[in-house]
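Quiz preparation item.
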């Protein structure tokens, strides 16, 4: 049954708190499971992706108790993980698979990581290469994809790794393996990717070196984490309010880590009216949060997206493309080839969808040009990619006749309350019987 979205009846209004940050939620569950003692996680994202991580940590011996919006994790200490009795199924989540691969490569037991069809087609050599340099042994398919058979080696060596791509998943994988390895592990990358691992490990008692580096072996101590609202989920509400005439919404407690906020800069550059009020009580080394007020700002203008902004909005390019479809003039995205190896080939999926709406989109291997226009009613396929599905649903709010979106069920991987939150603000969307 497709998700149908269609012209909102009036302005979007109200105050909302988007769901917990997905990246920080995965890390809270993994770090809590590795720590000695009981960690407390508040406002965790409960979604298909984070449930995969929680289940995997439980298979490795961590125990979880739910208490409203608080989850307690009892870890066994870094040396206390036990061999899983079955393959660990990471579902749709690249973060879960790549971060756990780092942990598992360093264990004194073997394990298998697998996922759904999308995850099992995503590139894993990018983590296998550094882990093998550390002494790990991992078997993948011939194409370098999962299932991954990990032959544990409790005697890994630290590594100084120059990652060819800006990727927090690669960086975090190496740092997590480095926690168990002898000597220094350090990762440099062409541009800074999200730095949640570097900010959060010290909360769990880990001494970090300069940048993304640490000395192993080191254990983790239980901690208390309050998960900010996810700026990547907030981006859909921001975009919807920018598109629908007269809208005025307030988003509370949104993560404002500068490695995540380039989408907000991009929409401001397009003429969007965003008022960001940081919470001044949060220490600089922790995860900054704040409130964002968004008011409809007339027709946005297309921009040339500065390539150095791409890593800090890597998950927001699909929704930027949706906004570009109605903006004045051309929006150009470059140096964004990574988008092609996400949950889907996001440049291609978005280009196809927008073209079906009559929008002119030109694809290049590393980017797209979108010519703003008047998207026309269409049926599109989100190819089971949550962020593409939500991007089309937001655009539907200003489409006469609306849009039918196939492959939208995976919205649950990151934002299970998306349809309800959008509707509560006044948006027009829901499942349509065929
Ligand atoms: C994530 C890193 C990014 C991002 C993903 C979450 C993380 O992936 O796209 O949604 O939590 O570390 P890459 O590191 O592959 O760019």
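Solution:
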């Amino acid at each position: 049954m497709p998700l149908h979205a269609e012209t909102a009846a009036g302005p979007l209004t109200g105050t909302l708190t988007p769901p917990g940050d997905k990246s920080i939620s995965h890390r809270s569950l993994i770090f809590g499971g590795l720590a000695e003692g009981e960690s407390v996680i508040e406002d965790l994202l409960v979604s298909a992706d984070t449930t995969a991580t929680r289940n995997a940590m439980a298979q490795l011996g961590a125990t979880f108790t739910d208490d409203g919006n608080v989850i307690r994790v009892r870890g066994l200490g870094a040396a206390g993980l036990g061999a899983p009795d079955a393959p660990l199924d990471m579902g749709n989540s690249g973060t879960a698979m790549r971060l756990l691969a780092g942990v598992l490569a360093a264990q004194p037991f073997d394990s298998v990581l697998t996922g759904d069809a999308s995850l099992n087609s995503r590139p894993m050599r990018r983590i296998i290469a550094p882990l093998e340099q550390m002494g790990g042994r991992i078997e993948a398919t011939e194409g370098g994809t999962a299932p991954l058979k990990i032959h544990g080696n409790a005697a890994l060596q630290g590594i100084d790794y120059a990652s060819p791509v800006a990727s927090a998943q690669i960086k975090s994988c190496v740092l997590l393996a480095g926690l168990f390895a002898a000597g220094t592990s350090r990762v440099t990358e062409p541009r800074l990717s999200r730095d949640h691992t570097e900010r959060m490990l010290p909360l769990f008692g880990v001494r970090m070196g300069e940048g993304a580096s640490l000395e192993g072996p080191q254990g983790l101590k239980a901690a208390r984490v309050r998960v900010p609202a996810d700026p990547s989920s907030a981006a859909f509400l921001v975009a919807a309010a920018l598109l629908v005439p007269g809208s005025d919404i307030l988003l509370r407690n949104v993560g404002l880590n500068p490695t995540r906020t380039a989408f907000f800069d991009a929409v401001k550059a397009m003429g969007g009216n965003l008022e960001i009020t940081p919470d001044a009580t949060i220490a600089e080394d922790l995860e900054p949060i704040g409130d964002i007020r968004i008011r409809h700002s007339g027709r946005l203008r297309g921009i040339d997206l500065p390539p150095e902004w791409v890593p800090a909005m890597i998950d927001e390019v699909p929704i930027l493309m949706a906004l570009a479809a109605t903006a004045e003039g051309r929006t150009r995205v470059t140096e964004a080839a990574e988008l092609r190896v996400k949950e889907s080939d996001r440049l291609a999926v978005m280009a196809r969808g927008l073209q079906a709406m009559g929008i002119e989109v030109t694809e290049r291997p590393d980017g797209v040009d979108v010519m703003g226009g008047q998207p026309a009613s269409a049926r599109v396929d989100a190819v089971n990619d949550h962020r593409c599905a939500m991007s089309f649903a937001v655009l539907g709010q200003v489409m006469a006749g609306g849009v039918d979106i196939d492959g939208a069920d995976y919205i649950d991987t990151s934002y299970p309350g998306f349809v309800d939150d959008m509707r509560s603000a006044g948006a027009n969307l829901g499942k349509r019987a065929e």
